[in-house]
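Hi support team,

I submitted a single chain yesterday and got back a structure, but I'm not sure I'm reading the token output correctly. Could someone confirm the output below corresponds to the sequence I sent? I've pasted both exactly as they appear in my results page.

Thanks,
R.
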Amino acid sequence: MPSKKKNTKTAVNEFDEDYRRKRERNNQAVKKSREKTKQNTIETHQRVEKLRVENKVLENEITNLKKKLKLLKELFIAQAKAKNTSAAELKDIIGSDTESEDDKQMEEDDEDDDDD
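Hi R., thanks for writing in. Yes, this is the structure output for that exact sequence:
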């Protein structure tokens, strides 16, 4: 049975100073690369969290602005109705390109007023 003896040339290379330096440099490079990857991951998670918070703030602002717009439209429509302004004239004044629920309601109210 052949012996399981290590190749003496390989054994000598493992202890060679040049080999040790290369291994140490490689180990340091791997460690540096892993640390950089870990830091990038942490920074990305922090940025995602910051953007989530910012997005939530902006969504709340949109909601509040929509409520204000609705209130202002209602006030405007009430004022216009008090002055007997027609639905078509109101549409021209508001300048809306799309017909909203308020516009539909205003037209229905205007039609009801015309019936009287």
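A quick pointer for reading it: Residues 16 and 83 are 99 Å apart (CA to CA). Let us know if anything else looks off.

Best,
Support desk
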